[in-house]
Design goal:
The strands form two sheets. A seven-stranded antiparallel β-sheet has the order 4-3-7-1-2-6-5. Strands 10-9-8-11-12 form a five-stranded parallel β-sheet. It is globular, with a radius of gyration of 19 Å. It has two domains: 116 residues, Elongation Factor Tu (Ef-tu), domain 3, CATH 2.40.30; 134 residues, Nucleotide-binding domain of ferredoxin-NADP reductase (FNR) module (Rossmann fold, 3-Layer(aba) Sandwich). The longest helix has 14 residues. It is built from five helices and twelve strands. β1 and β2 form a beta hairpin. α3 runs parallel beside α4. With 269 residues, the chain is an alpha/beta fold. The relative contact order is 0.14. Bound molecules: flavin-adenine dinucleotide (FAD).
Length: 269
């Protein structure tokens, strides 16, 4: 473990399960995963994928010589979807969005036994504060964290959850408190758009959100996040701590190339 309490290790692909044709659960196995048992399911992790043709995980390291650079593993951010310490297994759920992205490509094509690097900050994470009403808006990349948030809520809370997926086949059954309503939004988009934000805002405007204690959690594509942050913070005047909004990806841009822009958007309002 290093100074910032990050644990990282190499694991191996053990099992691939298609939850539906656009969504894959991967099971990884490794011997050095005990520290991860202190992490909250739903917190984010970093995975490190060897570039094509490289058989091992070489973690980024400032001391590496330039000529080795193309062998360094590619870093992506995903969600800790669970683990079984006894079986030495960890789980990550991937949107299968094609082979252009190294993470999605790994989820679809990596052979059983393929290595992957996995890192997490070893700490408990509060996914959502204790309030009466929750407004949770995400796309398929956020399903793992949404599942974890819903599981963590008290039985008597209420709220609305909007999840954008590309077809009805992508609906998943979610354990949730009775007072939480789930709205699946089908959008088979091929380009950047804000259907998710527009539909959620229209619905919330119709029912009203003037409640005493409240929390909005937003995790989806950049344009939707921007629109929704604006809605809650500027239009509805919610406080900063009442809104957690972060772009999980940006249309047309690989994760590491959009990081700066996504972070700036996060600190915008
Ligand atoms: C905190 C956090 C947690 C996340 N958790 C998860 C998770 O549990 N499961 C999950 O699937 N994703 C999750 N994501 C999103 C994931 O990191 C991005 O989708 C990432 O870009 C995928 O990497 P890649 O190598 O497949 O594609 P990249 O190389 O990053 O991108 C290649 C191309 O694919 C496009 N692209 C990227 N993601 C998608 C997508 N979902 N749909 C369509 N096109 C896309 C990009 O715009 C780009 O054009 C999370 C992101 C964050 C910040």
């Amino acid at each position: 473990m290093n100074k910032s309490n990050i644990h990282r290790t190499i694991m191996y692909l053990k099992k691939r399960e298609y939850i539906n044709s656009n969504y894959i659960k991967l099971t990884f196995t490794g011997t050095d995963i005990e520290p991860f048992s202190k992490c909250t399911v739903g917190a984010n992790n970093k995975i490190f994928i060897p570039p094509k043709g490289v058989e091992e995980v070489i973690f980024p390291n400032n001391n590496l010589k330039d000529e080795l650079e193309e062998t360094i593993a590619i870093r992506r951010t995903y969600t800790h979807a669970g683990m079984d310490l006894r079986k030495k297994e960890m789980y990550v759920e991937f949107v299968a969005h094609g082979v252009e992205g190294p993470a999605s490509d790994y989820a679809i094509n990596a052979p059983i036994g393929a290595p992957i690097g996995l890192a997490m900050k070893i700490k408990e994470t509060e996914l959502a504060p204790d309030v009466n009403s929750y407004y949770i808006i995400g796309d398929a990349t956020a399903i793992p964290v949404i599942k974890a948030i819903l599981k963590s809520l008290k039985a008597d809370v209420n709220g609305e959850v909007f999840i954008e997926v590309s077809s009805q086949e992508d609906y998943q059954s979610l354990n949730k408190p009775e007072g939480i309503n789930i709205h699946w939004i089908v959008n088979n988009k091929t380009a950047e758009d804000t259907v998710l934000a527009d539909k959620a805002i229209t619905y919330l405007e119709a029912i009203g959100t003037d409640v005493t204690t409240r929390f909005a959690f937003i995790a989806c594509e950049f344009s939707n996040v921007r629109k929704l942050r604006n809605y809650f913070r500027k239009v509805k005047n919610w406080e900063r701590e009442e809104v957690s909004a972060y772009s999980y990806w940006k249309y047309g841009v690989a994760e590491t190339k959009s990081e700066k822009e996504r972070r700036e958007e996060k600190n915008r309002l």
